[in-house]
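A further point concerns the way the authors explain their paired sequence and structure data. Each protein is reduced to its one-letter sequence and a matching series of backbone shape codes. An entry of this sort, consisting of the sequence and the corresponding backbone structure tokens, reads as follows:
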Amino acid sequence: MTALGDTAAAVHPGGGFNPPVPTGRGGADYGRFVDAVRDLQDHARAVDAPDHVITRAADLLQEASALLAPYDADEWTAPSGRRTDLPMRGNILSVPNETEPGEDGRLHGWARFRRFHLGRNGAVHGGMIAHLFDSVLGKTSFLLTGGPYQRTAYLHVNYRQIVPIEKELQVDAGVLRTEGRKIFVDIRLCDGQDLLADGEGLFVLLKPGQP
């Protein structure tokens, strides 16, 4: 009998760590579906409704889950993360953001934390800032070096000021240097002229077959 891991490696060379194959699965409403899930997460974080409203909402959510459950698929088949026509490839996990390479050789763009990402006292949860940094730096490392398979070796975050939710912020990131398979990157998150957080990371190109 062939082990599941061996099968995955055979189907997806490179230890299964491959760029997602673009798809149109999910149809024209998949973007609306993702946005609806994000809105629901925001409401779940913010709601203070009467008991009967929560009961009704729970019933509807269970109904929706039952509708979707028969169609669960693996990461190589599901549209999430593979819809290149949508922001963040339709990945619900990602903090909403968009970045593109600039003339200075760095990535520039925006990020917007939602109510769902709230920590306390109007501030974004620190772990969500780290999550955004890891995502943007991974894109930076890939786009600016062309390395196809790489993973985060370390990520350091400096929290300079409170990061607000529900506001479009500016983000820029770039490659500091490369040393063999090592790619050193840095990132800044700003609100206008105010530096809110910055950080640096190390990404390592994988050897053939590494997961």
In short: The two ends are 21 Å apart (CA to CA).
